[in-house]
Amino acid sequence: MKISCAFATSLDSHEHARIAETLGYERAFFYDSPALYPDVWVQLCRAADRTERIVLGPGVLIPSLRHPMVTASAIGTLASVAGPDRTMVGVGSGFTGRLSMGKRPIPWAKVKEYVLIVQALLRGEEVEWDGGIMTMLAPNDRYAPARPIEVSWVVAANGPKGYGVTRDLGAEVLTILVPNPDFASSVILDFGTVLDEGEDPGSQRVVDAAGHGLSVVLHWAVEHGAIDELMPERGREWAAAYDDVPPEKRHLALHDRHLVAVNERDRPFVTGDLLVKGGLALSASQWRDKLAKLEAGGCTEIAYQPAGPDIPHELEAFAAAVHA
Predict the structure, then answer these.
(1) Which CATH architecture has domain 2-184+283-323?
(2) Is there a contact between 74 and 92 (Cβ–Cβ < 8 Å)?
(3) Which single residue of 37, 182, 188, 294 could bond 9 by disulfide (Cβ 3.0 to 4.6 Å)?
């Protein structure tokens, strides 16, 4: 199984990508959620300048956030810095990038249409969008890389419609928690931390490094009406911590420190027992067992997202556990 990393894009993600490269991570996905993190393309290009081998890309871009010409230009820029072979493009319907701004994910048909338009632009073709004909006009010299620009594509999908679009595009699939063995390349996004020998899973260090993984499960369950199914014991009590927030603003509170840390409303519910039960706080050997089960289920690559105040340590500990 390949190991890659995913970053809640920060102002120092370029340095974290450099460290990940030295540790043997193969790819680095940078989250694209403008309400939460710095501009993904700027940080990716900074990372490309500081690395030589690791593959880089947004994980994942949301079509509604940018005109397809803007995205094509951004992809071309990253490919000119890192090279096409080190450039990947992840795309999704907007689980975080749109929900954090109070919008539902866009239809999968729109995702497919957008990707096909961007791919045509990267090939140097003329396309019609929003009633206008356009093509990438920049000369193939110091203004833009020569077309066609060929890069790899990854689709974040969980469900039949998303899987169908992934197949239609001939892309890799990226899922959370459960792999899809129907694809030759099935990438899993995962969170958590490696416990030191005898370490308390409820310690502040562990909560800082892995608690965001529990929070995102709660937030997803609240926004999709699945709280009773996923968290039958304390789920309702936890969700009630947000009842004082007006419904039209609740998404803002739910995404406070999303995939970065545990916010004050979530903190009383993030316990060591839940972190262990959720597979987020594990010893090195337990991580290896977990990854072996994922691989047996069809996972070909794990995209590990570190968090907390010491991301270099998290990257090192996870790589050491896997490589052992």
Answers:
(1) Alpha-Beta Barrel (3.20)
(2) no
(3) 37
